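Retry 2 of 3 after timeout on previous attempt. Resubmitting structure tokens to design endpoint.
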């Protein structure tokens, strides 16, 4: 038996909120401010994660960055005053030495050791060429293990290290830092992923998994023997931000960065700020969106650190993380160059425009957004009391297979508002699945108690709608009763999909070389670990451009994006180097294959007509080298003159 249990506040949080004076709801979850998911009733105290409400990992990570953004804005004036730079010992010179490799195999609790015989893998590693030491550790990433690895490097005079554990995406920087503390170049580290690529995918084949782990370790050891020290070089960071999109998310991101002391250029393609939020009358809990948006717009327009460019478009971006230059075209003006160190994409999305259910033919067939405004404006005629709502219009179909996420709450919220205004009204919601997640489930309960009817239909048998003259006729096969029900509605309200602005998204994605997902929204680097970042360094995303979400979620993600961007902009210098692409200019025929292939736009035609690759911009991905038809591009180590002199001295 498997129990799927819910979330409740931790008992210790009860005492904590009393000490801090934080308001909580009747369940004990932190009470957030309107449209500010991480704000509390006390300035300077922020909440995030499940303490704020039940939620999944990506939302918790987004809110953590959002809370950090709030704290960073308050602490902007004292940024860096309490920071002490880590002092590393001088790097040991290993050029000319025979490889002495240390191998550390991780149990990862039972993640690996529950499937792989890690002790035998460690014993096997000792038999491999150039391995001078091998051991197995319960958690190689723990602080105790890091100290042990550092000690073993010194004790056994190791000059290269292999850790066989989990993913380098999450843990490689940690182990590289351990090498630096031990006096080794951080690039003398190699990682074998025997968790994701072995124990997790071979849980029922323990013997085979152990043999595969040995193979992975053997390959990593062979590669480690060929590793050489690589070196990075500093460059000055352009401590300015660029935000593309002037909706609520874009303005929030720009305002937070500006409050942290950074200059921001805010680019909006329309003639006014506000985006989709201008079309919202209220939030799902009745929040006055117009007032909130007006206040946000006023702060942005008045902030001395924010430059607003309306009717503007980013035409091209060159450079790399920390040092970008974008060409921006403003209607009626000449193109301008904007220097910035980080970019936030917040260009929003659109409401699906239905072609079904008489939309556009009968004026009383409206969307939920329109119906919400009609309720608040009192625009529904007194005699109109029968309302039918249809869910998943334009969502969860072949064209848009995803759930638009906000529709169920939007429908329930409007149904409650209409029933409270007219208790005698008949409101029926035709649904496939009701998804009022988290604390919004209370709204579903309230709607049922007010008398709102819910009728489930199957996707293969959608409601049939006809114009009945005075009223709209709706017939639907009830999945519970297995009978066809007929309704006559004064208003038919459609819960329509949130769809990407396909043209704008593709244009921005092409210009900035950013990825889109299969639905046309911008794709994050990792749904759980990096839900705000792009895979391309220096780019971050927020709001509906990422996926369908509520306004308060867009605002939280925008603050999170600002927090992530500030992590770059707060640095006076960053390091580049490692591996870079180099062009053999004598044999290059300037076919431009490398220019078209590079995902980062690094190769360019120089003033002398030859291809040039700026080492500071190159990521060392090797795409250009692989694609070059004449093989005149190679990826090599980035070395300064001092390193080259050392190597020549050793060779001599």
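Retry 2 succeeded. Sequence:
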């Amino acid at each position: 038996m498997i129990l799927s249990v819910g979330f409740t506040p931790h008992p210790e949080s009860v005492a904590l909120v009393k000490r801090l004076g934080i308001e909580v709801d009747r369940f004990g979850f932190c009470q957030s401010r309107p449209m500010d998911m991480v704000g509390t009733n006390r300035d300077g105290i922020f909440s995030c994660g499940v303490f704020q409400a039940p939620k999944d990992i990506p939302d918790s990570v987004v809110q953590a960055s959002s809370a950090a953004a709030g704290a960073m804005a308050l602490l902007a004036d004292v940024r860096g005053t309490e920071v002490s730079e880590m002092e590393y010992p001088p790097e040991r010179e290993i050029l000319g030495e025979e490889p002495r490799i240390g191998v550390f195999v991780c149990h990862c609790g039972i993640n690996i050791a529950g499937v792989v015989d890690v002790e035998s893998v460690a014993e096997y590693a000792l038999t491999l060429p150039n391995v001078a030491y091998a051991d197995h550790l319960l958690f190689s990433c723990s602080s105790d293990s890091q100290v042990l690895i550092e000690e073993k490097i010194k004790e056994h005079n190791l000059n290269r290290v292999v850790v066989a554990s989990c993913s380098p995406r999450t843990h490689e920087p940690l182990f590289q830092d351990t090498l630096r503390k031990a006096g080794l170049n951080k690039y003398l580290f190699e990682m074998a992923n025997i968790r994701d690529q072995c124990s997790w995918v071979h849980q029922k084949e323990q013997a085979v998994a152990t043999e595969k782990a040995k193979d992975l370790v053997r390959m990593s050891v062979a590669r480690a023997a060929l590793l050489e020290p690589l070196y990075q070089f500093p460059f000055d960071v352009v401590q300015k931000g660029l935000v593309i999109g002037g909706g609520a998310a874009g303005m929030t991101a720009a305002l937070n960065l500006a409050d942290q002391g950074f200059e921001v250029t805010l680019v909006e393609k329309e003639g006014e700020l506000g985006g989709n939020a201008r079309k919202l009358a209220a939030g799902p809990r009745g929040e006055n969106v117009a007032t909130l948006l007006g206040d946000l717009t006023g702060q942005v327009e008045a902030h001395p650190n924010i430059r607003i460019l309306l009717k503007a478009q980013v035409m091209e971006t060159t450079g790399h993380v920390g040092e970008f230059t974008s060409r921006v075209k403003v209607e009626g003006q000449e193109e301008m160059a904007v220097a910035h160190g980080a970019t936030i994409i917040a260009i929003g999305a659109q409401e699906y425009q239905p072609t079904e259910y008489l939309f556009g033919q009968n004026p009383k067939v409206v969307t939920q957004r329109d119906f919400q405004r009609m309720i608040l404006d009192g625009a529904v005629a007194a005699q109109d009391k029968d309302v039918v709502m249809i869910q998943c219009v334009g969502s969860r179909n072949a064209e848009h297979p995803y759930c638009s996420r906000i529709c169920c709450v939007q429908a329930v919220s409007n149904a409650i508002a209409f029933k409270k205004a007219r208790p005698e009204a008949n409101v029926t919601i035709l649904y496939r699945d009701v998804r009022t997640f988290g604390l919004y489930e209370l709204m579903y309960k309230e709607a049922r108690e007010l008398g709102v009817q819910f009728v489930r239909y199957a996707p293969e048998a959608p409601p049939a709608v006809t114009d009945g003259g005075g009223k709209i006729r709706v017939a639907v096969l009830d999945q519970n009763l297995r009978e066809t029900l007929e309704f006559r509605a004064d208003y038919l309200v459609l819960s329509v999909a949130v769809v990407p602005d396909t043209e704008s998204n593709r244009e921005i994605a092409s210009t900035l070389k950013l990825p889109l997902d299969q639905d046309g929204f911008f794709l994050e680097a990792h749904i759980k670990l990096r839900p705000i970042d792009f895979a391309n360094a220096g780019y971050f995303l927020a709001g509906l451009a990422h996926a369908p979400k509520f306004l308060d979620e867009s605002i939280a993600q925008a603050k999170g994006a600002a927090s992530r961007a500030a992590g770059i902009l707060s640095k006076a210098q960053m390091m580049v180097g490692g591996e870079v692409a180099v062009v053999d200019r004598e044999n290059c025929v300037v076919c431009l294959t490398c220019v078209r292939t590079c995902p980062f736009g690094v190769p360019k035609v120089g003033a002398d007509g030859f291809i040039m690759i700026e080492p500071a911009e190159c990521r060392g991905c090797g795409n250009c080298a692989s694609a070059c038809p004449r093989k005149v591009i190679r990826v090599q180590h980035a070395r300064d003159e001092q390193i080259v002199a050392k190597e020549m001295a050793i060779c001599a």
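Attempt log closed. Residues 639-652 have pLDDT under 50 and may be disordered.
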